[in-house]
Amino acid sequence: MSEEIAVDSQELGEKIVTVLKTIYDPEIPVDIYELGLIYDVFVNEENEVKILMTLTSPNCPVAESLPAEVEEKVKSLDLVSDAEVEITFDPPWTQDLMSEEAKLELGLL
C-alpha cells in the first residue's frame, strides 16, 4: 500500500502568491498581486491552477505577454501540474483594488 503525500492547498496557494509577487506591471513599480490584478486562484485535486486576473486597462501594452509570464512562472513551481490564466475585465480594475502597501508605494495614501 503506497502512501500519497497530500499537498497542503494553503501552502501551495502561498507559494503561488509568492511567485505572483515577483511579477511587475511594467508601467507601475508594484507587483501584480499588490496591484489587485489577481482576482482569484483556483487549484484542483490534480494541482492544476487557474488564475483569474485583469489588467489595468484593456489597452495595456503587456496584454499578451503578462498572462503568459504569469502562466510560465506558476507552472515552474514543482507542485503545480499545469497553469492557465484567464483575463477578465469584469469587474474593471480600479485603484480601490490595490493593497494598502501598493497605494503607499505609489504615494496614494
UniProtKB/TrEMBL annotation:
<dbReference type="InterPro" id="IPR052339">
    <property type="entry name" value="Fe-S_Maturation_MIP18"/>
</dbReference>
<dbReference type="InterPro" id="IPR014291">
    <property type="entry name" value="SUF_FeS_clus_asmbl-assoc"/>
</dbReference>
<dbReference type="Pfam" id="PF01883">
    <property type="entry name" value="FeS_assembly_P"/>
</dbReference>
<protein>
    <recommendedName>
        <fullName>MIP18 family-like domain-containing protein</fullName>
    </recommendedName>
</protein>
<feature type="domain" description="MIP18 family-like">
    <location>
        <begin position="14"/>
        <end position="86"/>
    </location>
</feature>
<dbReference type="InterPro" id="IPR002744">
    <property type="entry name" value="MIP18-like"/>
</dbReference>
<dbReference type="InterPro" id="IPR034904">
    <property type="entry name" value="FSCA_dom_sf"/>
</dbReference>
